[in-house]
Design goal:
The protein is mostly helical. The chain contains five helices and no strands. The chain is globular and about 50 Å long. The two termini are 33 Å apart.
Amino acid sequence: MVAGVGSETFRGSVIGRDQLALWASGLERFTAERARHDPARFYDVGYEEFTADPFGTMAAAYGYFGLPLSGAAADAMRSLIVADAAGRGHRYTLAEFGLTGAEVEERFAAIPGYEPSKR
C-alpha cells in the first residue's frame, strides 16, 4: 500500500514532516560532500530557470561540461518535456502535508549555500 492512500497511520502531516526531514538532511549531506570537491565539477540550476526552459537549461548544463546535446539524447529530452507539459495539473500544497512555506524555508535556510525559491 502506498503511504497516505487509505492509510490510517501515514496522514499528510506525517508524510510532510518525514519528507521535510529527509530532503533537508540529504541536502545537508550533499552540501558537506560538495565542499570537498572542485566547484567547477558542479553546475547549479534554479527551479524557476529549469521549469521556464527545461531544454535550454539542460543544453546550458551540457555546454558547461563541454558535452554536445544532440541526437537521441536531445530527442528524448524534447519528448519528455512535451509529455510532461501535457500531464501538468498534478499539484500538491504544503498545507496538505501539514507544512507552511515559512517552516520549509526556515529548515532549509540553516543549510550553507541554500537559496530559497523565488516562487
